[in-house]
Structure formats: C-alpha cells, structure tokens
Amino acid sequence: MPAEDQYRPTLEDIGAILLVRTVDNVGNQTGTFTADTRPTDSQVEVLIDKAMSDVSRAIGTDIPEVLWENARHVVSKCTAMYIELSLYPHEIRGNISSYQEWKALYEEELLELVAAVGAIEAGATGADAPGNSPRFSYAVPSYIYSRQL
After folding, report:
1. Whole domain around residue 93: which residue ranges?
2. In a domain, 147, yes or no
C-alpha cells in the first residue's frame, strides 16, 4: 500500500473538524458525511482526492511514516477549505465561513510538513527529528468563539 494511502483522511476525520457541515436532511448532526448531508459523502471523497493531490505535490507520496498523521491533518484542513469554497462561497463573501481560518492553519502546517519531510530526508535523527514531538493539532477556528449564537 502506498504511503499516500496511509495519510488519506477518512470522512470521519473531516467531519470531526467540520462538524457544522455534518447535518443531515432532517437536521441531525451526524459527525460524518453521508448521502443525506450537504456536502454528501461522495462529494467529500472527491474533495479529499483534490486535497490529497495538492498536498502530495508539495510533500511527495512516499513520506516517512512518522509524518503520516501530520500529513493527514494537513489534507483534512485542505479538504475543509474545498468544502467551504465549493458549497458555501456566499458565506465566505459574507465573512461567516471558517474558510479564512482553515486557510491560515493549512498554509502554516503545510510549510511545517514540507520542512519536516525535508529534514528527515536530509538525515535528521533522534530528538531533533521532525515527528518525534508533533507540533500539528486540530484547532478550533476563532470565529466559533467570537460569534454570537
């Protein structure tokens, strides 16, 4: 199995960070994408493919195993951006979408991931090797805290 498959996020991974978009056609929050959510599970799979392509162009498809989880996080954020761009552009224009927060997180973590892959490929070992103390984590976009419900 190619390493790229090891860092491909699942629908549940994407749903965990974009919970607000996992509401089915009767208003239940599912926590993942299904045939009854908007976007649907098949639409999200296509967007994951696009995000995988973007990230793998930057880091390659055969990255060190220690970075697979970090790469999965980066691909998840890129997928979240694609979901916002493709299905909710009116919310981006109205500044009520989480797109800008996802973009900032994605760009920062992609740069860190590219550097980590490069460092390991250059022979970094021991405590200084990227991946031994992961700096990647999911973050809650700031708009969630600043928005009045």
Report:
1. 3-122
2. no
Q: Is 123 left (phi over 0), alpha (psi -120 to 50) or beta?
A: left
* C-beta separation of 98 from 141 below 8 A: yes
Please tell me the distance from the alpha carbon of residue 27 to that of residue 146, in angstroms, as a whole number: 24
Q: What's the pLDDT tens digit per position in 109-133?
A: 999 999 999 999 888 764 455 554 4
Q: Are 74 and 81 in contact (CB under 8 A)?
A: no
Which among 41, 53, 36 is positioned nearest to 15, based on CA atoms?
A: 41
Nearest to 2 by CA among 41, 56, 46: 56
**Displacement of CA 66 from its chain's centroid (Å):** 18
pLDDT single digits (tens) 18-28: 999 999 999 99
Asked if the structure places residue 52 within a domain, the reply is yes
Residue 30 placed within a domain: yes
> Does some domain include residue 137?
no
